[in-house]
């Protein structure tokens, strides 16, 4: 009996399985990884083309999972992007590969923080998350300036954390409230459209972004002008934003693409139809990102093209036009007036959702 036990123990020691996680470093390469574990290079050549490209670009700092036995690789999981990972399995010294989804752990957290120093410092101290501050600033950016926050302001945040092997990969703010003796602002993420609304179903942000790009300057405003190329007085029915060729152009509001192609004068164009009778036009583009086509629904802030110089244009710029009920209007005058309030079924769904949230997390609104 004693001898038998000894044999079992020594087998366990001999077959030393080891589980570890490692961070992909700057000096790591997929080729080096194969070499380290004596895996034949044919494993790489047998991968499909798109996966080959991905293993060459494994992000620095990504965590890879390793199961080894006496320093021989038995299994590895290498993340390729936010969704998928490459699994390598050693089966009797034959190496098999598989693409499997990354499993994240999701956790909801509810915090209340008093802002004593500044938002960034106090939030980081409470959560250890760097990206949370930017999300909060972005949610309330139309409501308040975080540089001037009265003393004793409190902020409550309910957020969802997605992590892998203990490191946080993604956070989503589900609810946030900022309050002091002067005001209270509440923001609920509406799961049906991905926007933030207050407790009365009014959007925190305008329906439109202030501009469809980061720009250096406006070279021409809306109105009558002497056309720089035609040398005739013409109505300029939009705004010209100047920046470098290739600057990403974003849709200023949620909507549906109704035109993509060439329009004489405007060059390469995207036209998007939005709610309440609005259409926006983006002209002189250099090109479009993948997945931009007529009929596609886009979100506010989504990239729909790149700044160019196509069509009748004196230099790289974006021509941005806004039409309402068939008439061009001044894009600089639309922003403030256009807020979204949920009505009908959308409003009902939103209220049903936030009432469960309020119950579950004991959220009290003043
Ligand atoms: Zn123009």
UniProtKB/TrEMBL annotation:
The entry's keywords: Hydrolase, Metal-binding, Metalloprotease, Protease, Zinc
Cleaved signal peptide residues? none
| Location of the Csd3-like second N-terminal domain | 108-222
Q: Where is the Csd3 N-terminal domain?
A: 22-102
Task: Spell out the InterPro entries in the cross-references.
Answer: Cell_wall_metabolism_enzyme, Csd3_N, Csd3_N2, Dup_hybrid_motif, M23ase_b-sheet_dom
Cofactor list: Zn(2+)
Q: What is its main location?
A: other
Report which superkingdom the organism of origin falls in. Bacteria
Ranges for domain M23ase beta-sheet core come to 234-331
Which parts of the chain span the membrane according to its record?
none
Q: Subcellular localization, per the record?
A: Cell envelope
Could you identify this protein by its name? M23 family metallopeptidase
Species name: Caminibacter mediatlanticus TB-2
């Amino acid at each position: 009996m004693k001898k038998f036990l000894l044999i079992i123990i020594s087998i366990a020691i001999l077959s030393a399985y080891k589980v570890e996680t490692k961070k992909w470093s700057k000096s790591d390469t997929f080729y080096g990884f194969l070499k380290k574990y004596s895996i034949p290079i044919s494993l790489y050549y047998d991968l499909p083309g798109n996966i080959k490209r991905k293993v060459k670009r494994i992000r620095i700092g990504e965590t890879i999972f390793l199961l080894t036995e006496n320093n021989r690789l038995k299994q590895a999981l290498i993340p390729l992007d936010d969704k998928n990972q490459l699994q390598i399995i050693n089966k009797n010294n034959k190496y098999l590969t598989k693409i499997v989804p990354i499993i994240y752990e999701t956790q909801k957290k509810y915090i209340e923080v008093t802002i004593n120093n500044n938002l960034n410092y106090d939030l980081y101290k409470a959560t250890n998350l760097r990206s949370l501050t930017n999300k909060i600033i972005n949610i309330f950016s139309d409501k308040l300036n975080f540089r001037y926050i009265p003393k004793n302001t409190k902020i409550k945040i309910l957020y969802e954390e997605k992590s892998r092997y203990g490191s946080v990969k993604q956070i989503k703010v589900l609810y946030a409230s900022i309050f002091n003796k002067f005001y209270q602002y509440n923001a609920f993420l509406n799961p049906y459209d991905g926007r933030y609304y207050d407790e009365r179903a009014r959007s925190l942000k305008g329906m439109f972004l202030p501009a469809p790009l980061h720009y250096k300057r406006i070279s021409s405003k809306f109105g009558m002008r002497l056309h720089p190329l035609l040398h005739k007085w013409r109505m300029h029915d939009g705004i010209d934003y100047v920046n470098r060729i290739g600057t990403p152009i974003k849709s200023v509001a949620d909507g549906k693409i109704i035109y993509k192609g060439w329009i004489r004068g405007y060059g390469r164009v995207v036209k998007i139809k939005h709610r309440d009778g609005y259409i926006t036009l983006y002209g002189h583009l250099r090109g479009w990102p993948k997945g931009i086509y007529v009929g596609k629904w886009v979100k506010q802030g989504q990239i729909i093209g790149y700044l160019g110089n196509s069509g009748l244009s004196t230099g790289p710029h974006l021509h941005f036009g806004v039409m309402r009920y068939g008439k061009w209007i001044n894009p600089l005058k639309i922003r403030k007036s256009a807020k979204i309030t949920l009505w009908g079924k959308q409003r009902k769904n939103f209220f049903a959702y936030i009432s469960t949230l309020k119950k579950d997390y004991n959220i009290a609104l003043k």
